[in-house]
Amino acid sequence: MNCCFLLPFILGIPLIWPCFTATEISTTEEVEHPMGSHFRVKRGWMWNQFFVPEERNETNYHIGQLRSDLDNGNNSFQYKLLGAGAGSIFVIDERTGDIYAVQKLDREERSLYTLRAQVIDSTTGRAVEPESEFVIRVSDINDNEPKFLDEPYEAIVPEMSPEGTLVIQVTANDADDPSSGNNARLLYSLLQGQPYFSIEPTTGVIRISTKMDRELQDEYWVIIQAKDMIGLPGALSGTTSVLIKLSDVNDNKPIFKDRLYRFTVSESAPAGTSIGKIMAYDNDIGENAEMDYSIEDDSQTFDIITNNKTQEGIVILKKRVDFEHQNQYRFRANVKNRHVDEKLMEYHVEASTTFIRVQVEDEDEPPVFLVPYYLFEIFEESPHGSFVGMVSAIDPDQRKSPIRYSMTRSKVFSIDDNGTIVTTNPLDREISAWYNLSITATEKYNVQQTSAVPVYVQVLNINDHAPEFSEYYDTYVCENAGSGQVIQTISAVDRDESSEDHHFYFHLSGEDTKNSSFIIIDNEDNTAVILTNRTGFSLQEEPVFYISVLIADNGIPSLTSTNTLTIHICDCDDHGSTQACRNKDLMLAMGFRTEVILAVLISVMIIFGFIFLILGLKQRRKQTLFPEKSEDFRENIFSYDDEGGGEADTEAFDIAELRSRAVLRERRPRGAAGDIRSLYRQSLQVGPDSAVFRKFILEKLEEANTDPCAPPFDALQTYAFEGTGSPAGSLSSLGSAASDQDENYDYLNELGPRFKRLACMFGSAMQSNN
């Protein structure tokens, strides 16, 4: 089935799209062809495409009509619409074939719909013609304004940039069809931002129109408008804002706000002391505001360093100042930026300057020695009070206080108030060749102000020591030695110091030269050799020879010493070697040394053994005196298994005799030591008249008297009888607790050494109780 379809409107203009049909179109209409010509077309079926204008405000508006060539108008045909949107967006009149849009169409949501049309005979229910497909296209209208999708916009551009410098490009988007007229063609314009910025109308590129200074204004808000339809009437528009910030360039030099700075500094301030701060201001920021301070003419006394955090200049001392030498300083300081681009050097031609005045404050300074150290020389053996040297210090202050001098810990030198150093004891270079002294200077007006200086005294040598043998010589000569045989080489040393090399002269004493069996030859190299002067020696007749060797030095005056050389006669072996004699003497010496060492070791062992014995006895004594800390000192109680016969038993002892001698024991005050001694003697006479018991008691008493370690407290004693009582009362601690507190035991100190410990125990106990 061939048919045509009706296109009612394109952009509001009636239009019939031509197609070839097999049916007659009911009406004709003259239209303007898009190519500019006019022609007449019949309205009928159009099965391939169909245009519908978008954004129609009304619903159920007529789009077109479908009509079959076989439809004779008797309403026997039924038209159906199939496909996406059929029934929901588009509906069809089943009798007439008219198609209606029941919803608002938006090309930006969907621009094309593909549908299918079918004609059915209502009487038979069969399709009259095959199903045909057609397309409905939604035509565009200008219903979308331009939009900036990359908002917000922000740009940074250096200050003082030249005209035409690119800042940023903004871009707007129009959702309309760009192929449909000018709906999506945009033009950009500047609503706010003149005269500093401009924008290209077609590209949206923003450029600088004039130079700008960040220090005057550091940011700008620019408003951009975009219009579609190339700005024609009825066009839609959109706007956006652009924040443009100016970045800093170093176009400002630092400047001092103050033309003069005044500071003060104490003359006692050490080098490196901060005396003040100066400040320059720079309108730039960040790295462009970093600055360096300097002093013109490169001062030797002061310097300026920069605090990188605060950009302040700190004035410091390079060396100490002296009020008496100069009390005021005046100099000029400069400041410059640390980082300057060559293109911006025109802004930094002249550096900003300021003046600095420093006033030096006077302080009470310690004395100052004229030199940092002193070096004196003096000959050894100089007499007491010899002059060594003189030190001098002055008060640098204006009042010029007198100075007193003192010396620290010296037994050889002394110093007076004038700084004169003298000797107090003889000097010996061989004992000490150098003396290091410390001299202290003290102000008389202020003793707190002191200073010290080192003094080095060199003791010069004089020839006061004669030369002597360099070592001990152990010389041997064989009995059968011949004349002229060398038996020993000797050398000498001198403790004196010589400006020239030492030279020694060797010869024998006058007596040995005439009668000696030996001679000496000086080698003139500070050594000499001893030779035999005869043939044959006798070990039995003369086992040892002693010769006197005179040694002289080359000092001024020359000194000579006499040294004795001992020569032993040796029974040499067949080879004439004296080594056997030397070994024998060595063994004897070693044996003697061994005996001495053994004797010393035995003595040490005996001493340690004696010490350990004493310590052991003391420890044992302590254990005997105090076997247990908790043990009470009281009389011991003895129990016996023998039972007496009672009062009727008169064989064991005479009760009458006991009763006749029984005396009531009354407590008496312990007053005098003489009373105790008399009572003690009476107690020895009490008891049975038996020599055995008396002898036993006396033996025990003698042991107690002679034993220095006997304890002064109650001990175990065995008695074979019961005494009749003591006029002094009982000495037992039993039952005495109630009365001991009222008694004075100081009399025990008078009873002798055996009661000393008892006196200490009872006397100290009573004092602590009281």
From TrEMBL:
Gene3D superfamilies: Cadherins, TCF3-CBD (Catenin binding domain). It is found in: Cell membrane. It is a single-pass type I membrane protein. Residues 1-22 form the signal peptide. Residues 68-148, 149-256, 257-369, 370-469, 469-580 form the Cadherin domain. Keywords: Calcium, Cell adhesion, Cell membrane, Glycoprotein, Membrane, Metal-binding, Repeat, Signal, Transmembrane, Transmembrane helix. Pfam families: CADH_Y-type_LIR (PF01049), Cadherin (PF00028). The keyword Methyltransferase does not apply. One of its GO terms (biological process) is cell morphogenesis. PROSITE patterns: CADHERIN_1, CADHERIN_2. It comes from the Eukaryota. GO terms for cellular component: adherens junction; catenin complex. The chain crosses the membrane at residues 596-617. InterPro entries: Cadherin, Cadherin-like_dom, Cadherin-like_sf, Cadherin_CS, Cadherin_Y-type_LIR, Catenin-bd_sf. One of its GO terms (molecular function) is calcium ion binding. Cadherins are calcium-dependent cell adhesion proteins. This is Cadherin-19.
